[in-house]
Structure formats: C-alpha cells, structure tokens
Design a protein that fits this description.
Elements lengths: L1 H26 L2 E3 L6 E8 L7 E8 L18 E7 L6 E4 L2 E4 L4 E4 L7 E3 L6 E2 L4 E2 L6 E3 L5 E2 L4 E2 L6 E3 L5 E2 L4 E2 L5 E3 L5 E2 L9 E3 L25 E10 L6 E8 L6 H13 L4 E3 L5 E3 L6 E13 L2 E4 L6 E4 L7
Parallel strand pairs: 2-3, 3-4, 7-9, 8-11, 9-12, 10-13, 11-14, 12-15, 13-16, 15-18, 17-19
Antiparallel strand pairs: 1-2, 5-6, 6-7, 20-21, 20-24, 22-23, 24-25, 24-26
Length: 330
C-alpha cells in the first residue's frame, strides 16, 4: 500500500515538474516591465509576429517586409528597445548597429528606445522620419550631423534629452520636436519651422546680433522668446477663404511671447464681426466649430528692446499661417 502511495506521489511530482518546466519555457523570454500587463521579449522576433503591449529587444525584418515600421501588417504597434536585424535582400530597409534606415541610408526610420544615451546620426542621413526617435528613455544627447529635414513627430517623448545639435537642418515639420527635456536649441536663421514645430517652452538661441534676428512663431497666438527682448509687436491677419478679400487685421504690443488679454479682445471683436463660429480658451487658443468653412489666421511678430531710451527692433518673423483645414485648434 505504501509503495502504491509512493508511486502515485512520485507520478504527481513528475507531472507537476513537467508543467513547471513547460511554463518556464513559455515564460522564459518575457519579463515584466513598467506598465500593467506590458511584457518584454528578449529573443529575436519577426516583425510580423509581434504582439501588442510587448517590448522587443530585437526585431527581425525579412526580405519581403516593405511596409510601415511603427505599425505592422496586423496593426500591432512595433516597440523595439535594443536593435533591428534586417535581411540583406530587403529592398526598403537596412540596419546599421541595430538602428533602422532606408536602404540608401538617407532616411532614419527607427532608433530603438533603449539603444543608447548619446547618438550621432551617421553622415549621409538627410531626414529623420515620423516617430523615428520616439520615447527613447535613455537618450540625453543627439547630434543630427548632416540631417536637413525633421519630420512630423520625429523626435518626441524623449524626456531625458538635454542636448540637440542640428547645424544643417533646413526644415522642421509640425510637432517635429516635442515633449523632450530640451530647454534651448541653437538653430541657423534660415531654418523653416512649420506651425507647432518645436515645443513652445524651448528657448531658441540665435547666433546674430539683436537687430539681425528673425523671430520664429510657434502658433497663431504664441512665439519663441527672444533673449533681451522687452516686448513684441504683433500683427495678425484673419480671413475667410470663401471671401478672401474680406480680411481683418489686428495689431498690438505685448510684453510676453504670447497674446495678452488686450490682443485676445481685439481678436474676439474681429471674429465676431466676421460672424465666425469660434471660441478662445484661457490660454489664447482659438477653436473653430464649423466643419465646412475654411478660415486663415496669419501671425507675425518682431521683438524690441531699449537702447539709450530708444526702441530697437529685430526683423519681422515670417507669417505663421494657421488653416482650419489642418486643425480645429490654432
């Protein structure tokens, strides 16, 4: 009887051992990371086999995959933390040191989020594509080298990023640099900034004397601060594209780098006279309700300071044009 009980107990132990072993094989590649239900896979995984709510240390792209890189064919978000491995026969992508580029090396598509704390873009890369440098949790320093174009939301949610070198950049698209740890950026005077191009709390440093500076406008109601400025002259043009000749102009002087209450009242008056369906919130942001009408708001500014009790000015900025077709909020 004892032998039978011992045999049954031993069999039960063996079954449990097999279950535990099987579970360990299944679970082994995964470890819990920040965020409820988010897992990490350490093994090399084909991009077509990835799952939601999972971080992958290594992602493989075979010769046939030529589709979007942030969302795969199964509409699953791609979260790569360490490196990409790409088939040499792939016609669209290639990997250099685990970073994903276009086949010709001119576009940077994806910097893995935990790849490095300091990154220098290789020479020959001309553009940073949308979401290419996203949520890079360890990145503190970024040198864009020969890059000429920063795409839509190209550098975003890199909270530790403190230093950015962009000597050759010629254009920054909408929301190109956003939600980073940057406090200041040095850019050349001829860089083209689209609306909301660089997060508004950044100070743009100019390598020119005060009177040679050409300010940059962030949105229709806000612009980047100019060091030593005592105030700003503002000019705003408002028009309905169904009747473009019927336009209104608002002018004013403000102390800060955004609309004050006086400018907002002038804007409100003109918009009401034009019978636009709109509202202005406490931050000066304008919201249009109509889906079927196109309105344009163009804003330009110039800074001033005093020298021997006389006002001296920077150049006027280019007009920053807000179009309701692109966004409801200015």
């Amino acid at each position: 009887m004892k032998n039978k009980k011992s045999a049954k107990l031993l069999a039960t132990i063996n079954v449990l051992a097999m279950i535990i072993c099987t579970l360990s094989i299944i679970i082994a590649p995964f470890t819990e990371v920040k965020g409820k239900g988010v897992k990490r896979v350490k093994e090399l995984t084909n991009i077509e086999n990835i799952k939601d709510d999972t971080l992958y240390d290594q992602i493989y792209i075979d010769k046939d995959y030529v589709y979007d890189i942030r969302t795969n064919l199964n509409q699953v978000t791609v979260n790569c933390t360490k490196s990409f491995v790409v088939s040499q026969d792939n016609p669209k992508y290639k990997a250099i040191d685990g970073v994903l580029y276009s086949k010709d090396g001119k576009k940077l598509y994806y910097l893995p989020s935990e790849k490095t704390n300091s990154f220098v873009v290789p020479n020959g890369v001309e553009s940073i594509e949308s979401d290419a440098i996203y949520n890079c949790s360890t990145l503190t320093s970024l040198d864009l080298s020969e890059v000429k174009y920063i795409g839509y939301k190209a550098i975003t949610y890199c909270k530790k990023l403190k230093n950015l070198k962009m000597d050759n950049v010629k254009k920054v698209d909408r929301h190109g640099i956003e939600n980073t740890g940057l406090k200041k950026i040095v850019i050349k005077q001829k860089v083209k900034l689209e609306i909301h191009a660089i997060q508004s709390n950044v100070s743009i440093k100019h390598k020119k004397s005060f009177t040679q500076i050409k300010p940059y406008v962030y949105s229709c109601y806000k612009w980047y601060k100019i060091k030593a400025a005592k105030g700003y002259e503002v000019k705003v043009i408002i028009k309905d594209m169904s009747c473009p000749k019927d336009k209104r102009t608002v002018k004013g002087t403000v102390k800060s780098n955004e609309f004050d209450n006086k400018i907002e009242r002038k804007m409100t008056k003109q918009l009401k006279e034009l019978q636009y369906n709109f509202t202005i919130n406490k931050f000066g942001k304008i919201y249009f309700f109509s889906e079927y009408e196109e309105y344009i708001i163009k804003t330009k500014v110039r800074a001033f300071k005093y020298k021997k009790n006389k006002k001296i000015y920077t150049n006027w900025s280019d007009y920053m044009t807000y179009d309701t077709v692109d966004s409801e909020w200015c």
